[in-house]
Design goal:
The chain contains three helices and no strands. The chain has one domain. The radius of gyration is 26 Å and the shape is elongated. It has 86 residues and is mainly alpha-helical.
Length: 86
């Protein structure tokens, strides 16, 4: 089943339109490629922004006792999974 298509009209300065057309950038395939690349770039930027925000969160480091408790909990969970065939 094909994708639904949308027709767009662009209004550009003559000089930009001429240069873009001469460079092959005004074909449907080229515009699709440009839009997909920009969408991908923006998604990546949002991921980095989110990572930067997470990096600014101040989470106190675990104490030695907390680290040991986490290790023991992971070992217990692994033993239970191994015993149940999981």
């Amino acid at each position: 089943m094909g994708q639904k298509m949308v027709e767009l009209t662009l209004v550009l300065p003559d000089s930009l339109a001429c240069e873009a057309e001469a460079s092959g950038l005004l074909t449907p395939q080229a515009i699709e490629s440009l839009l997909r690349a920009e969408l991908r770039r923006r998604r990546i930027n949002r991921l980095f922004e989110a990572a930067d925000q997470l990096a600014t969160l101040t989470v106190p480091p675990l104490t030695e006792a907390e680290v040991e408790a986490e290790i023991q909990a992971a070992r217990t969970a692994r033993r239970k999974a191994d015993a149940s065939g999981g």
